[in-house]
Amino acid sequence: MAVDPARQGEGIGSRLMTALVQRAAEAGQAVLVLLGDPEFYSRFEFVPASRIGITGEPKWGEFFQAAPLGDGGVVDPGEYRGPRGCYEYAEPFARLG
């Protein structure tokens, strides 16, 4: 997800993320994961992915985040019942470094 720098600060990114989380939950997805600024994504209830048992590249650190999903949206990390383990990006993305 990206917002044209000329349009940043207008709430476009927040509306897009809110819609994404809602649609993913409605579609029955168990979790959303991403690499991004924890300060920004915490407002959408993303937490460090390690809190729900999902690990990634150590260099990702606090920027590797997850939103555990359930009926109606994000659920408390303690209620997460989805997949756990090591996350790997698809090969084309992994090549980006």
From TrEMBL:
Keywords: Transferase
GO molecular function: acyltransferase activity, transferring groups other than amino-acyl groups
Domain N-acetyltransferase: start-end pairs: 1-94
Transferase is among the record's keywords: yes
Top-rank lineage group of the source organism: Bacteria
Xref: InterPro entries: Acyl_CoA_acyltransferase, GNAT_dom
Signal peptide limits: none
PROSITE patterns assigned: GNAT (PS51186)
Identification of the protein by name: GNAT family N-acetyltransferase
Protein's organism: Kocuria tytonis
Classification of source organism: Bacteria, Bacillati, Actinomycetota, Actinomycetes, Micrococcales
